[in-house]
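Why do we bother with holo predictions? Because pocket geometry can differ from the apo form. Keep that in mind while you read this record for manganese (II) ion.
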Amino acid sequence: MIELRLVLRKECKKASKVFIIGHNDPDFDALGSVLGLGYIAQQLNDNVYLIIDKVKDNGIKNIRDSFKDQFQIINACQFNKLRDDDSLVIMSDVNKRELLAIDKNIDKVNNIIIVDHHALGPTTVKTDKVFIDTTASSASEIVTRLLTGFKFAYPSEIANLLMAGIVLDTARYSRNVTSKTHDVAEKLYKMGADGSYVNSLFLEKFDIYKKVHNLIVNETIIKKYKDELLPIQVSFSLNRSKPTTIYKREELAKVVDNMMQFEFDAAIAIGFISKDSIYISIRSKENINAAEVISGIGGGDSRRAAALVKSNNILEIEKQVMRIVDEAIMRMKKEKKALQEETLILELDASSKEKDANKVKVLKNV
Ligand SMILES: [Mn+2]
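The structure, written out:
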């Protein structure tokens, strides 16, 4: 962190212009961390621009617009006109090129700093200034630590958005939280962050709630797979009454996130996101690997994964997904059994050695 601070200070001072960018379709974490880094850059350079483009959410649009007096906020097109050879680009909450609004022009930038909490991947933008902390809850947490390190007194509006970023990425302090996350939250309160304002940013829209809960309550079937102690249970949510209903990816993600509070080992939601694109969202607990289940058609990590398939026959896709899940569970059971047998052999081996040792002792007593 100290090194990042030094690098930021040096590079921001040296640059002709500083551009800060988050990922496309920015969320509170991308927005909060970009605003925080923007504030830092403004203390070190007179030409600071925030590239906030490809915003889909109206709430985010309104918040972005509310910062127009404090920051020069531009789009990808304006960046291409303003950019010169001595410009610095800081990427925040993102390290992969396909998630950038300036993806086509990022290679023309000579100086790039990455500040992120996501793991590197094959499409990570090439630069030697990569500051990734995957143990941080969010980019907002990293940026708050930076602001504290710089000892800058930043406005409460920025503190609010940084807090919103943390609340979002930790699902209200329920995952990826460390003592540092709480430490940072305390700093944000001290800078004037308002918890009730931040909570108001997360109020649900009633019609979305109804849509999500209709899928959960009325359109979910459960499959049980026999296992040694408890059966493995997987839920499948799909709007069978009105299969052509169009959902947002986030709505399907909410369905499976919600299902994880119940006794299911994995939850799957399937829905159209456009006329011929079907989105599959999956969540799992420790005995099922979500990414492995869906590896043939999608990706993600061991607990959260998703896939997008082109088709207009959603019931057929569900059948295929069910088959994939059946196969994956069979495979995992086999692996588990093989592992248990292996441990058993090891244990037998160890106990027979123990007996041999006892024999030696007995002999000695004689
Ligand atoms: Mn994030």
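Confidence is low (pLDDT under 50) at residues 360-366.
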